Amino acid sequence: MSILVVGISHKSAPVAILERVALDRDGVDKLLGDVLSCDHVSEAVVVATCNRLEVYTEVDRFHGSVEEISRLLVQRAGESTAGILPHLYVHYDDGAVSHLFHVAAGLDSMAVGEGQILGQTREALRRGQAQGTVGPALNVLFQQALRVGKRSRAETDIDLAAPSLVSAGLDRVSAPMGGVRDKDVVIVGAGGMAGLATATVSRLGAAGVTVVNRTPGNAERLAAEYDARAARLHDLPAALSGADLVITCTGSNGILLDLDMVRSARPDSAPLAIVDLALPHDVDPLVGGLPEVNLVTLADLADELRDSVAGNEIDGVRHIVGQEVSAFLNARRQASVTPTVVALRSMATAVVEAEMERLATRLPELDGVARAEVLQSVRRVADKLLHQPTVRVKELANETGAVSYATALAELFALDPEAVDAVTRPEGLAPVERPAGSRVLGERP
Q1: In angstroms, rounded to a whole number, what is the distance separating the alpha carbons of residues 252 and 224?
Q2: Long-range CB contacts (< 8 A, 24+ apart) of 230-236?
Q3: Residue 176 to residue 4: CA distance in whole angstroms
Q4: Can you tell me the distance from the alpha carbon of 380 to that of 395, in angstroms, rounded to the nearest whole number?
Q5: Torsion angle, CA of 69/73/76/79, rounded to 10 degrees?
Q6: What percent of the chain has pLDDT over 70?
Q7: Residues identified as active-site
Q8: Does residue 352 contact residue 378 with C-beta atoms inside 8 Å?
Q9: Are 58 and 135 in contact (CB under 8 A)?
Q10: What is the pTM assigned to this prediction?
Q11: In the 3-class helix/strand/coil scheme, how is the chain assigned residue by residue?
């Protein structure tokens, strides 16, 4: 079994294409179910953010799996295959591990180094666990990816050097409006991005902040945290009437601020800055054509964010990711030979026991002391004969190439395939957060 990633992101497609494949929570759950029903897929996790949609799977066949998963993504785009397929990318096995670690560390983000992707990766794993689509392979992989993301931020200043999408958007609109201090701000949404936006404008000294959301309870929780005001979505026009700045970041699939709403809410044509961080966008692009409106979207921010982080921080994180990828792959290769080694030693134990039973039949006068001495000697002989092959097969497992030394060992000793398969990985899945001091399978202390 191998890890396969099929995805699309801001690096492979323009925002207009990303909007077509954007999924809400129900969409993610539906995609998880559809992916798991594919013939060659045994596990699945979907990472869906404002600028990426990636399907991580454990598969037993490459080509058939790529075709099926790509077809599912094309279907969700409502676009022709020719329109979407060129924007999809594929990573397989070692490449898939490396890609996920780069994503979790923030190296693949639109705002390189931003911290939100770590929470989004954690949420993707949690959602897969809740839907029953995560097994041991992806659980171990994602737990390690979360560790890589945390280590990158603990050992470097990548998260301090990198602007968030919120701060980048505010930078674009602040100068014309004279900064955020003493301004009235409306936040549309109540998720992670909305929380970051609310925290940012509150810290910058906004005179008043109103959190607008479709679900009143979510708006109230976020507003209470920052001494803001909560409002329902149908109160958005009223909130717009007195706003200087609007930041939208919902998971809605439709336009929330259209041209008529903005015109009606602001008949005096007072200046209004809007930062639309949603995908699909919350604001009708035509709103940006109004003379009093300064509209900034994800597409506007994409280019300037790519090179916004200090090179030294990026190099430091890349070094960490490289170390972690090598350690993970080595541990996985060594773990892959464990079933064969255990099966070989089990076979040796069975041979020793069978010979001891045969000896007891042929020499019934053998007393217990002599029998124990013979048993110990035979066991030592078996252990010494197997020691070097089992040590070498673990060492050779770390070498890349076409040779499967575990398979060769099984063939040489004529091991029963069912006996090898019976040596399973531990049952059950770890929680999303790794306990302190825990290690990935095969990792040395």
Answers
A1: 23
A2: 236/186, 236/188, 236/212, 236/261
A3: 46
A4: 23
A5: -130
A6: 84
A7: 50
A8: yes
A9: yes
A10: 0.66
A11: CEEEEEEEECCCCCHHHHHHHCCCHHHHHHHHHHHHCCCCEEEEEEEEECCEEEEEEEECCHHHHHHHHHHHHHHHHCCCHHHHHHHCEEEECHHHHHHHHHHHCCCCCCCCCCCHHHHHHHHHHHHHHHHCCCCHHHHHHHHHHHHHHHHHHHHCCHHHHCCCHHHHHHHHHHHHHCCCCCCEEEEECCCHHHHHHHHHHHHCCCCEEEEEECCHHHHHHHHHHCCCEEEEHHHHHHHHHCCCEEEECCCCCCCCECHHHHHHHCCCCCCEEEEECCCCCCECHHHHHCCCEEEEEHHHHHHHHHCCCCHHHHHHHHHHHHHHHHHHHHHHHHHHHHHHHHHHHHHHHHHHHHHHHHHHHHCCCCCHHHHHHHHHHHHHHHHHHHHHHHHHHHHHCCCCCCCCHHHHHHHHCCCCHHHHHCCCCCCCCCCCCCCCCCCCCCCCC
- Cα separation of 46 and 57, whole Å? 9
Question: Which residues, 6 or more positions from 136, have their beta carbon under 8 angstroms from its beta carbon?
Answer: 425, 426, 429
Kindly report each contact of residues 260-263 with a partner whose C-beta sits within 8 Å and lies 24 or more positions away, as own/partner: 261/236, 261/237, 262/287, 262/290, 262/293, 263/290
Q: How far apart are CA 151 and CA 327, in angstroms?
A: 14
Q: Give yes or no for residue 379 having a pLDDT over 60.
A: yes
Task: Give me the chain's average pLDDT, please.
Answer: 84
The count of C-alpha atoms lying within 13 angstroms of the C-alpha of 111, restricted to the half-sphere facing its C-beta, is 24
Q: How many CB atoms lie within 10 A of CB 289?
A: 10
CA-closest candidate to residue 202, choices 184, 220, 175, 176: 184
Burial label for 426, CB within 10 Å (0-12, 13-18, 19+), is exposed
The confidence band for 427, taking pLDDT boundaries of 50, 70 and 90, is very low
Give residue-wise pLDDT tens across range 262-293: 998 887 778 999 999 888 889 999 999 998 89
Which token pair is 120?
């989004």
Going by their DSSP bridges, the two strands 184-188 and 89-92 should be labelled as unpaired
Tokens 């077809």 -> residue: 71
